[in-house]
Structures are given as structure tokens and as C-alpha cells.
Amino acid sequence: MKPSTLRHPARSLLHAIFSTHHRNVGFGYLAISFIAVAIGTLLSLAMRLHLTWPAWHFPLHGLILPEEYLALVTMHGTLMLFFVLTVAPQSGFGNLILPSQIGSRRMSFPRLNALSMWLTALALAVLLAAFFVPGGAPMGGWTSLPPLSATPLAGPGEGLGMDLWLASIAIFCIASTISATNTLTTIVKLRCNGMRWERLPLTVWGWFTAALLSVIAFSVLLAAILLLFSDRHLHTGFFLPSNDLINGVLLQHRGDGSPLLWLHLFWFFGHPEVYIAILPGMGLTSMVLANFSRRRIPGYRLMILTTLLIGFLGILVWGHHMFVAGLNPFAGTAFSISTMAIAIPSFAKVVSWLTTVWGSHRTPSSAAATSRFPTPMLFALGFVSFFIAGGVSGPILAQPILDEYLHSTFFVVAHFHLIMSMAGLFGIFCAIYYWAPLLIHRTLSEPLGKLHFWGTLIGAYSTFLPMHFTGLAGEPRHYAQLNGLAGPGMTLLQSTMPLQRHITIGAIGLALAQLPFLLNLILTLLRPAQPFDNPWNATTLEWAPGSLNLHPSNQSPVVHRGPCQYTASGENFLTQWSELTPSQPKPE
Amino acid sequence: MPPTLTPPEIDRHHHISDGNNGHKPPTDKRTGGNGDGDGDNWNNRPQGHRGPRERLAQARIGLFFALGGDLMFFIALVSVFFVTKASGHFDAYSHFINEWLPTAIPSILWLNTAILLLSSVTAEAARRTMFREHDAMDEWFGIGRPITRRATLWLSLTLLLGGFFLIGQWVAWDQLAAQHVFFRSNPSSHFFYLITVTHAVHLFLGIVALIAALMILQLSRSLSTRQVFVDTTVWYWHVMGILWVFLFLLLVYGQ
């Protein structure tokens, strides 16, 4: 932020809001994510409560109708996927931390960067506006599958609500492409002296790969949205089969469109999107585990390679979302193989994480890290745990013959919530606890952090693990109600009700487990700011003295080695910016 | 066990090197910019700045990443083009019906294409004048602003030709409309309009960029700023020209 001569707090707030400094932009992204995650969580709780007690009248609303349930599904998915899991790790921390981690005092295109943040905020506002228009929010799911997303005939939210959804996501696509361009250029051109490619921290590699995927994927979604928009309003039929009947009305469109075509375009975006959400967390997990284990990362170059490989393979696997959508079986086989190939670099990652922490019984000699498992380390381990727990169901779903049974069940819900949502969430929390001294100039409380961790871990597993079982029992996704109806299928679903109640209580627990975090944040912000000097004894450049706010008159840092250089004892370590002699342990 | 997994080479080697495990010699090759080696700081630039072309290189790289995304946009459109062209349905008598009727290409598009290619030539001429050392020296010595003068001429020509292209596209749409070929007429006409209109939107952005570059040429005193604006605008213009040739050939021979 420019040194402001204006003393008035409102003026300086305005100054901060319209600043193009990457820190302000990063906090703006985090604020967007925070709003989205709060609303998205409430929506998911409403869904759970309705599934468990369908006759319950919500205060201020009343009974949830089936179409309202679908609107909840749609908005929950859209908010969480786009505005939380994409925005917070990639754009939020990518702005707050990335420049100082590569020794730059700024991003390449500060104005475009700020523009992209404001476009993202606009996209969120447009999306949330869908709740308040006639017909309400769209109900097509976050994938908005045509033909039902292509016509207002399909249901109440598919009119103006769907148009707002399309507008919101189109704006989001443009914002993400701009932001990714900025990130890529910054990494390519603004690394400080000595910061060679192989010396980049794995977090930077995560951001780099995710930004490459953003540039490739989001424009394809934009094209798909353009086509769907013209299907809705310009009488084309790209995604509409000829003479389709929707709600008893014949659609008189020329052309022989195909809903499968939308699936191809959407998932060409959608699958890279989940890697955009998870890759920064993967990189951070590697760095945090190494830092608190005081270990070098085994196979550092291999870890760079696997990051890129996961990104590359992530582009080639979109068809595995379409096994039951009428995809050619031969294509299904190809996509099945490429999908299972992702297990190879993912396994390499897991092995690297486990070997980094295995048997590392060293206490970091630091005042802030008094225990073997400080909160950021716990969240990184939680990331690994969810990545494994959600990952093992990946190769199961990658087989068309198994997916045929499981695809439309809660098994898939369990899979992607564990591997993407919970792992992604734990990555975000890990980032917040680890970088808190850089973000808010204070360390967060450890006891509250641990309470937050264990509460979230137990809440997450008790919410999402049982979904595997209800899914195997045949519980379909997108069904608003599981009981109170007739027929043998419904008897089967009725039998899952005890587990459903367990899941709902788990979800409420998961939401309540965030209260210690909020309390922690508030209490910490009430404390005065502490001066800090690399409290985690980290080796990467963002912890270098003064790297947070490099003044133009300062010497820009020079990097002498890769990150994570610890001695075997773990006591001594070489930071990336220090001269050749290993630094001595700091006096307590 | 742990030592075999995490070789403690800085324990062994810290007196001779920073422990790069036998890979490359630990010379600190400068990266991330145009080098910061011995003695190439001839203009005594401040620490952390990477020389006269730093901003230009950044702008170019950013532009090419963004254009990579743009390319994916058109790849998606063209993929849908081929899918739609090949798809049909079976009617009640089990006849396969494909409603695709190729849209006749108005012949003015050939002229437009030639104009756009010519505009790329003038744009390139403008771009090259930005980097002529003689002119830069003239300006350095205070003998007028030859770079701005020449570049303004070439860029104005480009702007004119680009405007002609857009008008020509408008005429083409008009001619098709006169033949009752509209956006909604046929699957192939959807694509004719989608492709030409999205490209025209991109070209319109190029014209905005040209106007911005022309203004910067007049207003900015920094040669580096003028170079950045003209150079990126022209590269964008070239890419849109090449893209148009590809899209046009697709419409002519691919339908």
C-alpha cells in the first residue's frame, strides 16, 4: 500500500480497498472466499437437515420443496468450487505469499490483478443475486447439464436464476484467466537473483501449475457458457437433441445438438478445475511437512515433476465424469486408463510426504513451535490423510464398470468431498495457521488451533466416510427426499436413515468445529502485533527479514540454494537467502 | 533409516559448497530476468531492476499466456463446429437427418482477409520502428521524436485497415442477412456468425488497444512505455490476423 497522507480511517480504508498492492488484493480474495464459504456451509446444513427430517419447517422459510433442495445443491457446489476452493488457495494466498516467496516486491500486472479480484467479487454478487430473482436460484447442479439448463421450462430456477449463474461464471472465467496470466508472468519474470526454477518452493510450483491449468481450462468453459447462452436465448441447439420433450413441451429447435457435447466441454474445464483447487495445497503440504520434520524433501525434482505431471494428466481425464452419460465405451476405456495413471504421480506425492515425516522425531527449536505437532503441521497431516482416504476411491470410480453402479450415488459425493473439499479446506487452514505471522503479524493460539483441528478432522470424517456406505447401499445424489414414499427402493433408502442422521450430526459438528477457529482469529487480532523473526525456522524466502514489504530502496534478496536444507540433526538449517555457513540455532 | 532418506550433505559438505549433491556446480547463475552478471549493469540501474527490456519482456509473456487462453476458447468453438457438423438424428422412418447446410461465404471476406493481412504488415512496420537505435539516439539528443512520428504513421494505417476490416465484416453480415441467412437459420450459420462475431469482438479490442497505443505514443515521455504499448498491441494484432486466416479457411473449406 502506498504510504497514505490521509489520516481519516474511512479514507484509508478506501485506499486499501482500491489499492493494487498484491497484499490488499489477496485479502480481498480471502474476504470473497470467507463470504462464500459461510453461505455455502449454511446451504449444505440446510440440505442435510432436509434429507434427515424432510418434514421439518425451517424458520423464516418453511418446508424445503424438491426444487429448492436442488437449488441448494447447485448453489452450494458453485460457491464452494469456484469461490472457495479456487479463489482462496490460488488467488488469495497466491497474492499474499507468492511474490515474497520468489523475492519479488510486486506482481507483474498489479492493475489487472486488482481488476481480476473485483471481477471475482462481481461474479459472487451476481451469483448470490440468483437467490432473490423470480423463480429463485438455478437447480441444474454446479455442472448445469443441458438440456434442462437450456430452457426455463425445466423448473423454477432455470429462468433468470440460470442466466445469472451463467453470467456469474462467465465473469469468473475472465477474472481467473487474468489472474492466472498475472501469476504465470510473475513467476516467469520476477524471480529474484539466484531463484532458479528448481529452487522454487513446491508451493510456487503448485501455483504455477494451477495457473497453467486455469489459462487452459477457464476459456473452454467460457466458450461452453457462450454456446449454452445462445441455446437459451438465440434459438440455437448446440446442446439440445432434436425434438426434445421437456416437462411435456416439445422444444422446436433446429439442429441436432447433444448434451454430451456440453459434458465434454464442461468437464474439460471441470477436471482441471479440481486440480487448480488442490495443487497449491499439495505444494504447501510438502513444504510444511518438511519444515516441521526438519527434513529435506525426498526427491525434490521428482516432486516438481509430479506436480506438473498431475496437472498434465488432469487435462486428459475429463471423460471419466461421463462413463454413464452415453460415452463411447472405447473412449471410456481410454479415459479410465489415463485416470488411473494419475494414481502414479499422486502415489509418488504421498510417498514423499510419508517419508518426509516418518520417524522424524525432532522438536523444532523455536519459541512458537513448542510441540512436535504445531497446528500447521497437523493440518498438513490432515491434508495427507484426506488425500489418501479420498484418493483410494479414485481408482474404484475410474473403472467404468464400477462407476456405472456408483456414479449417481453418494459414493461419489464422499469421494470428492474427501479428496477435494476436505483436503483443499485443510490446505487453506494449514496456510492460514502457517502464514499467520506474515498475514496478521501474530501467531494464532496453539490450544485453540488444536481444538479446531481435531474437531474439524473428526467432524469431516464422520460426515463424509459414512457417505461411502449410503452410496454403496444405493442412495442417489440429487434426491431431495429419502423416506416417506412407497416402493421397495424407498424401503432400501429408508434403511439408511440412521446413517443419514449420523451424517447430519457430523456435518453440524463440522460446522461448529469452526467456532474455535473464529474465536482464535478474533482473540489473536485483539492482541497487539508481535515482532516476529521466522517463528517456524522456515527456509523459504517469504520469512526472510523484511521480505514481506520490500521497499524499492532495499536490496532485493539473492537466493543461494533450494528450500528445505536441514542438517541431519535438524537443529541447523540453511535458509534460501543466507550465505554459505549454516545458521546456528537461535538463542532461546 | 532417516539419513538414507534425507542425505545430510550439508553436514558433510558445508565447508566446500552449499550441498547440491553433485548436480551442478554451485555457481549462482542469475535467473528471473536478463541476468545480473559481472559488469553488464552499464546504465547503473537500481538493484532489483533488470535492465531496459524488463517491462517489455513481462508484457509480452503476459500477453502470450493470455492469448494461450484465448486460443483454447477458439479451439473449443472449432471443436463444437466439427461435432455439430457431423451430428444428426433419425426421423420416424429411420432416416438419418443432418440439417447442416453450408453457409455461402460472401466474397467480400476474401478482400477483408487481404486487408487484415496488409494491416499486419503495417503493424509490424510500426513495431519495428520502436526499436531503431538511430531514432532512439536522435530522441536522446533531443532531435525531435522520430520514433513516435514514424510509429504513429504506421499505427494509424493499421487502425484504418483494421477499421476497413470490421466494416467489411459488417457488410458480409449484411449481405448474408439480405439472403435471409441469419444466426438462427442453420447449424452452419450459427457457426459462421459465432466465429466471425467473436473474432470481430477480439479485433475491436485490438482497435481499442491501437487507439490506446496511439495516445500513449503522443503522451508518454518514456520510450520504454511506448515500446511496451506498441509492441504488445502489434503482437496481439498479429495473433488475431493469423487466427482469422485459420478461421476463415475453416469456414471456406471446412464446412
Q: How many separate helices of chain A?
A: 19
Mean pLDDT of chain A: 89
Strand content of chain A: under 5%
Q: Over all CA atoms, what is the radius of gyration of chain B?
A: 27 Å
Q: How many DSSP E strands of chain A?
A: 4
Find the structural class of chain A using helix and strand composition: mainly alpha
**Approximate shape of chain B:** elongated
How many distinct domains of chain A?
1
CATH topology term of the domain at 54-81 and 107-253 in chain B: Four Helix Bundle (Hemerythrin (Met), subunit A)
SSE run of chain A: HHHHHHHEEHHHHHHHHHHHHEE
Descriptors:
heterodimer; A: 588 residues; mainly alpha; Cytochrome C Oxidase, Chain A; two-stranded antiparallel sheet; 4 strands; globular; disordered N terminus; B: 255 residues; Four Helix Bundle (Hemerythrin (Met), subunit A); 2 strands; 67% helix
List the helices and strands and how they pair.
The complex is a heterodimer of chains A (about 600) and B (about 260).
Chain A: H1 9-17, H2 22-52, H3 66-96, H4 98-101, H5 110-129, H6 160-189, H7 202-233, E1 245-246, E2 249-250, H8 259-293, H9 300-315, H10 329-341, H11 343-357, H12 375-391, H13 393-397, H14 400-406, H15 410-440, H16 446-472, H17 488-494, H18 497-512, H19 515-526, E3 565-566, E4 573-574
Antiparallel strand pairs in A: 1-2, 3-4
Chain B: H1 2-5, H2 9-13, H3 54-86, E1 89-90, E2 96-97, H4 108-129, H5 133-141, H6 146-178, H7 187-219, H8 223-253
Antiparallel strand pairs in B: 1-2
